[in-house]
Amino acid sequence: MTTRRGAGYLKRADSDRLYEIFLKYATVEKNGEQHITSEDFVRKFLGLFTEDDFNKESVQLIAGIVDMDKDGYISFSEFQAFEGLLCVPDALYKTAFQLFDTNGNGLVAFDEFAEVMRKTVLHKKLPFNMESTFVRLYFGKDKKRLVTYQEFSQFLHDFHEEYGVEAFKKCDKDGTGFISAGDFRNIMLTIKSHLLTKDLKQKVINASGFPQGERKISFPYYMAFNSLLNNMELIKRVYLNATNGHRTQEVTKEEFLHSAQMMSQITPLEVEILFTLCDMIHHTNNRIIYNDLNSITPEQYFKQVTRRVAEIRAVSSPEERSFLIQILENTYRFTLGSVAGAVGASAVYPIDLVKTRMQNQRTGSFVGEVAYRNSLDCFRKVIRHEGLFGLYRGLVPQLIGVAPEKAIKLTVNDFVRDKLMDQKGNIPLYAEILAGGCAGASQVVFTNPLEIVKIRLQVAGEIASGSKVRAWNVVKDLGLFGLYKGAKACLLRDVPFSAIYFPAYAHVKVNLLPFLFITFHFTTQLDETLSGQNDRYQKLNIDQWTLSSHSLILDFADDLQDSHQL
Questions:
Q1: What are the angstrom distances between the C-alpha of 517 and each of 237, 248, 415, 512, 521?
Q2: Who contacts 460 (Cβ-Cβ below 8 Å, separation ≥6)?
Q3: Is 164 in a helix, a strand, or coil?
Q4: How far apart are CA 269 and CA 183, in angstroms?
Q5: Which of 47, 104, 383, 527 is the most exposed place for a label (fewest CB within 10 A)?
Q6: CA 246 to each of CA 238, 243, 262, 511, 514: distance values in angstroms, whole numbers, following the listed order
Q7: 3-state percent breakdown (helix, strand, coil) of the chain, nearest 5
């Protein structure tokens, strides 16, 4: 269980936890061991055939995937082996192989294949010709040849394509090379339904007069249609090649054809169908973007079972979100922003303290005398005179304030982006800048008081005083309005900063991911670094101005306190 595996493998379940699940459904004891019956495994554990008049033969057939000795009972070792089977990269093919290997000898005979196929609903609707040349090529002329797992996996792949051709032939009774639009819909919804997305089913396949008002579908069109849907990942690569990695750039049919010349698998007819489908779904007017391709790209099996938590959505489209869902989304974003802000503030706080002291230092009694020669000198003197914890002076109020500050900034940015996004999921650059600016303005509510209190605590170590400066005392001394002195300087710093940072981060990440073969975490850090560089120079001077404003307020408050003591 501790064997190191590649990224293609799913993580195995804990044996003890798996055994607990097994015991919930184990109702039979044989030879001192608990077993699950075939019926309980399929109906209770898998949740299939829950109706009372279920097909017992089908239940036994499905349970045979796990029941290796075909005795009608599933032991824990078989149950655990099945869990391990589902974790391998070729789980789909191996599961199908064990379904057709009804006698459990590790090989599939023609009789086994034909027996399982004849029990399927698909075969009853559109029977497959078991005497075809295709079947004889795999199982031999006399159909006595036994097929191994590797051979059967290729057979299944080719069989699916051959089934589509056989279905076309059955519908083309006169041999004209054409079928009706109704027959085409029937074939696609039965044999090729795994290639159809929700948009294709609703807006294209079920649309009357598909395609473009034609009543007949030619065989070349039928083959190109299925080939297109089978190669949508390649289509996406062609699009990205045409746009140099930009996913929001519109591409015409001619530009796409020019890019597709490098990849001979794509034909002009497939490109024609692609633009027809995109226009029927999104009304693209012969111009497509990357999101148009996503609406007709079939869901990949392995992508579906290994989907990241961040990609799981409660609803399929933003329009379906209820008020409660939107509240939960914002709460989720607020929590993540709080954690991210706290971690980030703790990591860079010593650097921030040194920066504050360097910017705030005054000239001494001698001309040209300064407290710190450079940042390294400041760092050394803080540790020498105030200890290691002196580098974290004022961190607590920083953590208290930075969590809501970062959270509200991220939440407002996402909220405004959602409102300005079009139906295709795209957002123009001006809207990204506006969302970032709104996020920067919203954070000033927390930033300004936080900056004043933080700076006073950071520079307190420089003052030779017996009294210890506390955050609450600073708040009481300044009052509510005093905490927001210098807010204009904060706005002038934070609004442009966020207006540059968020769009830069989004665009750099989109442009880097298709081309950089590096890990996600490194890419993300590189994105943040590059986007941060653009606004760092703009922020530094205004940050100095903000600090000076806050320092003047602190000096004024000190003067008031001194006069009160006198």
A1: 15, 22, 31, 9, 12
A2: 393, 394, 469
A3: helix
A4: 21
A5: 47
A6: 12, 5, 19, 6, 10
A7: 65, 5, 30
Q: Where are the domains positioned within the chain? A: 15-175, 176-305, 325-565
Beta bridge partners of 29: 34
The three-class DSSP label of residue 67 is coil
Residue whose entry in the numeric block shows the structure tokens 């003591």? 565
What pLDDT does 274 receive? 92
- CATH 1.50.40.10 holds for 325-565: yes
The radius of gyration computed from the CA coordinates of the chain, to the nearest angstrom, equals 33
Helix (H, G, I), strand (E, B) or coil at 443: helix
The answer to whether 498 touches 437, Cβ cutoff 8 Å, is yes
SS3 state of residue 533 = helix
Q: How many Å apart are CA 156 and CA 138, to the nearest integer?
A: 11
Which pLDDT does position 320 carry in this prediction? 56
Residue 189 CB coordination number (10 Å): 13
What single letter denotes the amino acid at residue 427? I
pLDDT at 97: 92
What residues contact 168, with CB distance under 8 A and at least 6 apart?
179, 187, 219, 222
Count of positions (residues) in the chain: 566
One CATH from 3.30.70.3190, 3.30.930.10, 1.10.10.10, 1.10.238.10 for 15-175: 1.10.238.10
The values of phi and psi at residue 544, to 5°, are -65, -40
Placement of tokens 């051959």 in the chain:
162
**How far, in Å, CA of 176 to CA of 172, rounded?**
7
Q: Does residue 148 contact residue 181 with C-beta atoms inside 8 Å?
A: no
Looking at residue 517, its pLDDT comes to 40
Contact 461, 390 (CB under 8 A): yes
pLDDT < 70 regions, the chain: 1-10, 206-214, 299-323, 361-370, 403, 423-425, 454-455, 457-472, 480, 510-566
Q: Quick one: three-class SS letters along 97-162? A: HHHHCCCCCCCECHHHHHHHHCCCHHHHHCCCCCCCHHHHHHHCCCCCCCECHHHHHHHHHHHHHH
Confirm if 247 and 510 have CB atoms less than 8 A apart.
Answer: yes
Write down the number of H helices and E strands in the chain. Answer: 24, 7
Q: At 230, which amino acid appears?
A: N
Q: What pLDDT shows up at residue 540?
A: 46
Peptide bond before residue 89 is cis, with ω within 30 degrees of 0: no
CB-based contacts of 102, cutoff 8 Å, min separation 6:
61, 64, 70, 112, 115, 116
d(CA 488, CA 481): 13
**Closest among 86, 83, 10, 75 to 38, alpha carbons compared:** 75
287-288 vs 251-252, strand pairing mode: antiparallel
